């Protein structure tokens, strides 16, 4: 039994959340499988749960412990949630990285930025070209999405063919990049698909998705109606949209300006890698101030309200010498990702105060999604006719809905969130193991754990404020002077109107007087006594219990 | 000129945001106006900008300084953003509070909860009954909204009639409370309206609003299809919805359980004040465990994903002995307020993991808004035919859109965000003054300012972590031992793998050795030197610059 070969699927990230994708496939006898890793992405921190953290990515310890059996990493496309952790995880895995050209351009820059060898990234051609990786033969199948050269992976093993969709939509006229080709997908499905591991992001969207080509005319119309400066934002990586916006601006006789580092870099990468051949001429921001504003169109970063992006800087005042004013138009050619509503709202209101006409995607005229909607998913299920559908790239509710959809149409399916190892060998998916999956943080330059208390302490200081109690004990274990208090993130004066530090110092001095010698000699007990009393005083004075740090210095004889 | 009487409008909160409503009206010669205050509400803190804060409300200092000229406070309805700061602000204003019965019930409880006299709240009957308040005669005009007995205020002054809508929608069958009565509004408008000060919340909603009565049948349908336990959440204060849900549950033969303090309290207040006369019998949570789950319907608090509400507790496991499981249904009969998406998402996913069928308002079947949509606003403008429309209750973008709408239909209008004093006396609104308007925080039991640095310090500790550097200086201004470091919210070990505290202590000891006596004797300079070096070391080791607190203890001779 144990020598029987099996084909396994193990999501380490991306299944049970939208973000930090990392999927392991394995083939071989149990415990001796050879592996490949698909994608290694990040997710972004927030103030609620991860203040101060720079990036969040999947805990890949399980795979690191088995790195000797890992053959390669395949990156489906260049979005941060698929590629962002590559330079963070790679040094522990040290296997070749395969991507297509545009993604490779981004990946190489990422490796270089962290001082790693960009030549670990190997650029390959799409289907029907294949890469051999241990027991697997892998091919990049072009799909349409909101970034160029996105690919599904066709993963062949002795146990059959798996198609891992990556992020995709069904777009037969995607403006930039390859259209959805039903015939090509049918060709891939020709010899039978063992499992379709499939994007679930838009499973709750009931109508078929619209093509990227539909937004151009609406944007052209809008620009024609705009009399002042035109400013538009979208994800910089949505090169098709950036091109659509630029072409519409050009058609209206406007000079195009790219604002924000990501915007310039993405267009560069797209031109360098040959996916973008006809982008309008742009002018540098410095020259834009000489152009009448009704002849200008700015394409700016910051569609999600990011504080440091170009849109937010324009909302606060000036960016690269440019300012917005009454009569200008600002277009969100984007959807606000849940959680970013407040940041986006701040920008909209700031522009409103300036008299800027803000146009958002409320009417779905100026934006289309990059993911397959429910009817699109069903269409793919039916083209591919897999034995098994495994929903991925979704929160638990998306995975559930997608599983129900697949089962309803007669496919075997399973909900497999991060850490769920699924045997795909038979007619139905079998959960064979649960491994500990989690997240890890890049904090400044240091990797920290989600549960090591660092972030918890930050959250507590933010919610509760901090009191630092200092005390010096002399050589005879007697207090030298009185304890004193330092306050951070708390009112200096509470209900009694006496300064809190004064109250605390008096109160703790009295506490010291009545504390017996055994406690005075024991740092832990003394700390605890001071902490408890400090919290009581704060509760009475402020109506809250702060974090308390007690620092006892003992002078040595 | 200065002795000429004028009618002024001054929003202190609620205009430029949705929340913390507080509007001042004045009449009299400039600088001698007599005032009334309409509403005194709160807004809720968030981790991004106000961690640890309990409540946010309008800074009413301007009015407090003129409290001798304030006649009364009028509360339009019982939502927290209109009533929540009443017991916080009242002690500085000390004037009678006028409300209708149901609102009064809530207001009295709020006063009592803070140890204030509930009899300051005076319950009055609606239009045509009036209250005299200095130069003003005020009447409560029933409007429909998502809480019982909401009212517009008809404010008569020698300079004409102002109608302050409060929050409202046009609902001719609101289930609980008074329907919209076009005739009554026309009657109020009969003698001419000087100014309509009008809710702007839903000005971006292009279709006319739907009636509360439309959600009942859909909910009944859903309950009939549900085989397990049925759980539904909505705002507790939406008594009409709570009733609709309960009636639908009862019709399906289910026992109704109210879960969560606010849910029970609101139903109680509604029954006590006579607005709710036919609420189904409920059973206590303790008895519910004896009822088969397919015969149960729970109405629970926490439609916005609040961590301590009943819905979140059920999502985490057990609440009052009740648990959810496979086959149960959870209905959000509510809309997620922007900013709460993540909290709601957590709950939905937790239920998904349990196998619970979650139904949200995605299809707009199970929820309707309590605010007037754009066509409804236009309808009211046209019924009231005011000289002036002043948009309120909205972010800046809402005020702008509403002003444009009013002007487009031929009404004089103005954008007047918080702090903008508008003279409403003439044919067109005139901005006559800008006063400093802001927000103030209730933090535990203490009122703190938005700009006094307390919250800023909390945010910094959360984003940057904290290092406390301790140093004892002896009687001769020489260091006694070495400086030492305490770490909170930072990794203990950085890039060099040597404990950070050790590194810092060695480094700072060396710094002390090379520091000259002048600096050693000067606390400020010594602190600054230690702080700067500490941040450098942290930057090298951790790749981030923490908050640094330096504590120098000097022993006295």
From TrEMBL, chains A, B:
Domain Metallo-beta-lactamase: residue ranges: 19-219
MF-aspect GO terms: exonuclease activity; metal ion binding; RNA binding
Matching InterPro entries: Metallo-B-lactamas, RibonucZ/Hydroxyglut_hydro, RMMBL, RNase_J_2, RNase_J_b_CASP, RNase_J_C
The UniProt record lists the keyword Lipid metabolism: no
Any one Pfam family match given in the protein's UniProt record, by short name: RNase_J_b_CASP
SMART domains: Lactamase_B
Keyword annotations: Exonuclease, Hydrolase, Metal-binding, Nuclease, RNA-binding, Zinc
Domain of life the protein comes from: Bacteria
SUPFAM superfamilies cross-referenced by the UniProt entry: Metallo-hydrolase/oxidoreductase
CDD domains to which the protein is assigned, alphabetical: RNaseJ_MBL-fold (cd07714)
PANTHER family the UniProt entry points to: RIBONUCLEASE J
Protein name as annotated: Beta-lactamase-like protein
Top-level taxonomy: Bacteria, Pseudomonadati, Pseudomonadota, Alphaproteobacteria, Rhodobacterales
């Amino acid at each position: 039994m144990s020598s029987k070969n099996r084909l396994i699927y193990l999501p380490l990230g991306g299944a049970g959340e939208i973000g930090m994708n990392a999927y392991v496939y394995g083939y071989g006898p149990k415990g001796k499988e050879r592996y490949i890793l698909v994608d290694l992405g990040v997710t972004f921190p927030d103030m609620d749960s991860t203040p101060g953290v720079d990036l969040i990515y999947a805990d890949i310890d399980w795979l690191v412990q088995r790195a000797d059996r890992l053959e390669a990493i395949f990156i489906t496309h260049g979005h941060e949630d698929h590629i962002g952790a590559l330079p963070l995880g790679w040094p522990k895995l040290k296997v070749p990285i395969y991507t297509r050209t545009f993604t490779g351009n981004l990946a190489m820059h990422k490796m270089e930025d962290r001082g790693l060898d960009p030549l670990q990234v190997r650029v390959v051609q799409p289907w029907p070209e294949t890469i051999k990786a241990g027991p697997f033969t892998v091919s990049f199948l072009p799909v349409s999405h909101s970034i160029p050269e996105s690919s599904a992976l066709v993963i062949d093993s002795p146990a059959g063919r798996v198609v891992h969709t990556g992020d995709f939509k069904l777009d037969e006229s995607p403006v930039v990049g390859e259209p959805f080709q039903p015939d090509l997908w049918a060709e891939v499905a020709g010899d039978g698909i063992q499992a379709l591991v499939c994007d679930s992001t838009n499973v709750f969207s009931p109508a078929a998705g619209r093509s990227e080509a539909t937004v151009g005319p609406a944007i052209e119309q809008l620009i024609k109606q705009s009399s002042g400066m035109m400013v538009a934002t979208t994800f910089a990586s949505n090169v098709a949209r950036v091109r659509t916006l630029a072409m519409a601006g050009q058609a209206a006789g406007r000079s195009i300006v790219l604002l924000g580092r990501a915007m310039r870099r993405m267009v560069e990468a797209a031109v360098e890698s040959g996916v973008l051949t006809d982008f309008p001429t742009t002018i540098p921001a410095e020259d834009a101030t000489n152009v009448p504003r009704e002849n200008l169109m700015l394409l700016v970063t910051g569609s999600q309200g990011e504080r440091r992006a170009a849109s937010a800087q324009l909302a606060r005042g000036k960016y690269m010498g440019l300012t917005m004013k009454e009569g200008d138009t600002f277009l969100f050619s984007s959807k606000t990702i849940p959680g970013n509503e407040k940041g986006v709202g701040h920008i909209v209101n700031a522009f409103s105060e300036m008299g800027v006409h803000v146009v958002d995607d409320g009417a779905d005229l100026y934006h289309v999604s990059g993911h397959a909607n429910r009817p699109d998913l069903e269409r793919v299920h039916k083209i591919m006719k897999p034995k098994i559908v495994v929903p991925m790239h979704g929160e638990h509710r998306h995975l559930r809905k997608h599983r129900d959809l697949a089962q309803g149409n007669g496919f075997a399916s399973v909900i497999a969130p991060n850490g769920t190892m699924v045997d795909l060998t038979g007619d139905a998916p079998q959960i064979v193991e649960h491994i500990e999956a989690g997240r890890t943080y890049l904090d400044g330059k240091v990797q920290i754990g989600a549960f090591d208390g660092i972030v918890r302490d930050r959250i507590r200081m933010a919610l509760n404020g901090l009191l630092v109690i200092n005390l010096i004990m002399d050589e005879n274990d007697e207090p030298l002077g009185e304890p004193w208090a330092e306050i951070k993130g708390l009112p200096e004066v509470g209900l009694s109107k006496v300064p809190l530090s004064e109250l605390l110092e008096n109160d703790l001095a009295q506490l010291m007087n009545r504390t017996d010698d055994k406690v005075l000699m024991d740092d832990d007990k003394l700390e605890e006594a001071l902490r408890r009393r400090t919290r009581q005083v704060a509760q009475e004075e402020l109506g809250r219990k702060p974090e308390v740090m007690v620092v006892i210095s003992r002078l040595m004889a």
